[in-house]
Amino acid sequence: MIYGSRVIPEQFVMIQFRNVNILLNGFTLEKVNFRVPSGTYAVLMGRTGCGKTTILEAACGLRPIAAGQVYLMDREVTMLPPGRRNLGLVPQDGALFSTMTVEEHLGFALRVLKRPKQDIKNRANELAGLLGIDHLMHRRPLGLSGGERQRVAIGRALAAKPDVLCLDEPLSALDEQTHTEMTQLLRRVHQETGVTVLHITHNRHEARALAKLLIVIKDGKVLEGDHARLLMADLDNEM
Amino acid sequence: MSEKDAPETKLKAEHITLPKHGKNIQQHTPPSQMLPSYRADIPFILALGLITTVYVTLIVGMLTAMVFYVELPVIGEVFTNDRYRYAVLLSLISCSITTILSVWVAVPTAYLMSRVEFPGKRLLDGILDIPIVLPPLVIGLALLMLFQTGAGQFVQGYVRFTYAIPGVILAQFMVACAFAIRTMMAAFAEINPRQEQVAMTLGCSRAQAFWWVVLPEVRQGMIPAATIAWARAMGEFGPVLVFAGTTAKRTEVMPTSVFLELQVGNLSMAAGISIVMVVLAIAVLMLMRIAGRGTSTFV
């Protein structure tokens, strides 16, 4: 698979947590173990307050971990600052920069990397086309709808061609129609870019619609593979 | 969302609390979020109004009384008399320098206090409040003592502070900066820390995230910090009197002029200078507000 300027082997383990312990307000997430192969759309699911966002923050280097290791591709990034991990983060609220236009958002990461202006403009236009926000390029976040804001946040995160796109409940605050549109958009973005996605949600329907790999947090433990699927089936039966 | 939906979106945004640029200086509840008032609420609202009216009446009353007390030639004398003109000029220059220094110090200090956890933070937080709670005369006295020490004397060997213009600025700065720091801390608290975190995941160092994301976001918050610093500096009397003295055409600023005129019983002149101070304060406030209307872009 060719992604950006790098050649990434097919089904290479893109992100891996090895026996990670994370201190959380009042409790500890212990021995978090999971691995996401490259190009996979992984959904990390669990109830509100179970520590999903904390795991994502730990992956991004925004929260210190008490023990264990985090690997991105074949390099350990446990102690690396966020900017050197090559991850793109989309927070729940988008966290857009109110002083910047949409075009500036889409070019932000490349400006930080001091890329030529024309490259930045081309990449911004490419992302705007992919995300359907061409007509918003000169607008600032104030006045954008929830869906538009999330599109901009996704574009900003994708700009520097990250190894992993980390989505923190990106659809939770959207109405039903926008939610459906955004689900389709995320699927399309994943197909067209081939980026590895780690998507966090508490919504089972959302998880089922998007996940190629399901990871579930229950009672402070991380379940993946058959365990996670069984748990999902149990939850469905409870409904 | 298509372009044709944009006006509807905008209308929606005005009625829903979306993050708004410059919200950190917004002190009023937006009309859309105000509670409806019912007949049963009228006594309560009247009581609130009564208390407010008492205070507003006092403000308007004292300003009006001063305006009617002063004759126009007296105000003219403030600008024609060399001594008063010097005091006005020194006040304007020293307050402007104090404001710039205060904002320079307040922005990094407030950011440190708002975003970084470190041992002794609570102690530092308390120390930063000392200039606010100390009686102004004591600040002047403490500054005087400081510049009697070895370190103070060493500094004085290069720049004279006591009974000199730098002393006026330092005395004003000591108080004004504390208020600017508090205002900036409130402004930083309004900014979503997620924005910095996102910037850091996009390749920014902490310093770059501060310069490129936080600083443009908080720029609107600097206006009230500068305004309050300027206003405090303009009104500062005690520390300036004790630390810099009141030598005419040297360290005399407008508040000390008012004091000196009162000392000799020239109430009319004291009121004249005070009116000029009020007008200058209002003018600066208006300018700051106009300056605050601009929006910033990516640097």
In short:
Chain A is an alpha/beta fold.
Break the fold down into its secondary structure elements and pairings.
The complex is a heterodimer of chains A (about 240) and B (about 300).
Chain A: E1 2-3, E2 6-7, E3 13-24, E4 27-37, E5 41-46, H1 52-60, E6 67-72, E7 75-76, E8 87-90, H2 102-112, H3 117-131, H4 146-158, E9 164-168, H5 176-193, E10 196-201, H6 204-210, E11 213-218, E12 221-224, H7 226-238
Parallel strand pairs in A: 5-10, 5-11, 8-9, 9-10
Antiparallel strand pairs in A: 1-2, 3-4, 3-6, 6-7, 11-12
Helix pairs in contact in A: 2-3, 2-4, 3-4
Chain B: H1 6-15, H2 42-69, H3 72-80, H4 82-115, H5 121-133, H6 136-146, H7 150-156, H8 165-189, H9 193-201, H10 206-235, H11 238-244, H12 254-263, H13 267-291
The helicity of chain B comes to: over 70%
Overall strand count of chain B: 0
User: What composes the largest sheet of chain A?
Assistant: 6 strands, mixed
- Secondary-structure element series of chain B: HHHHHHHHHHHHH
Strand content of chain B: under 5%
Could you give me the name of the CATH homologous superfamily of chain B? MetI-like
How would you explain this protein's 3D organization?
The complex is a heterodimer of chains A (239) and B (299). Chain A has a single domain (2-95, 161-238), classed as P-loop containing nucleotide triphosphate hydrolases (Rossmann fold, 3-Layer(aba) Sandwich), CATH 3.40.50.300. Chain A is 36% helix and 28% strand. Chain A has seven helices and twelve strands. In chain A, the strands form three sheets. A six-stranded mixed beta sheet of chain A has the order 8-9-10-5-11-12, sandwiched between helices. Chain A has a four-stranded antiparallel beta sheet with strand order 4-3-6-7, with helices on one face. In chain A, α3 packs across α4. The longest helix of chain A has 18 residues, at 176-193. The radius of gyration of chain A is 17 Å and the shape is globular. With 299 residues, chain B is mainly α. Chain B has a single domain (70-291), classed as MetI-like fold (Orthogonal Bundle). The longest helix of chain B is centred in the N-terminal third of the chain and has 34 residues, at 82-115. The model of chain B is unreliable at 1-25 and 295-299 (pLDDT under 50). Classes of the chains: A alpha/beta (239), B mainly alpha (299). Chain A binds chain B through residues 57, 60-62, 81-83, 85, 87-89, 91, 93, 95-101, 104, 108-109, 111-113, 135, 140-145, 147-148, 153, 156-157, 159-160, 166, and chain B through 1, 3, 5-6, 9-10, 12-13, 18-21, 192, 194-195, 197-205, 208, 212-213, 216-217, 219, 295-298.
